[in-house]
Structure formats: C-alpha cells, structure tokens
Amino acid sequence: MQPIFYVMAILGCGDGSVDCTEARMVPARYETMAQCRADLANRIAANTDVPYPVIGADCRRIGAQMAKAERKPSRG
What we know:
Distance between the termini: 37 Å
Shape: elongated
Largest sheet: 3 strands, antiparallel
Number of strands: 3
Number of domains: 1
Strand content: 25-35%
Radius of gyration: 18 Å
C-alpha cells in the first residue's frame, strides 16, 4: 500500500478567479496538508510565468486511501 502524501497544483484562472484549470504540478511532496498549505504563497510566487490573469494553487491528497467499514449488528 502506498503512503498518503500531498502535492500542489498551480492553477491558471480567468478574471475573477473563474474557470480555473491545472497549469502544472509542483515537483514537491508534503507529508501533511498543513505543510502544503504553508508553502502555497511561496510556490505561487515562484510560478508567475503561468499565462493566465489570475494564478492560484491547490493542495491535493495522493496515495492509497482505505475506507473504514463499520460492522452492522446482525439482525435475526
């Protein structure tokens, strides 16, 4: 099973921050969402060459995720 980690996508948006699309992925992995979010401003500043009027970023979870199954009491 793969570990869970977070990556950051640089987004290019139209005026008013609408119609955002993924422009590129940042080549870094973060162990927590908090670490990724703490680096947002730095990564946006380093990616100002994206050809959109507005630039944003989004942290995304990558890796295997397991759903927790709860046992239901048997009827009968």
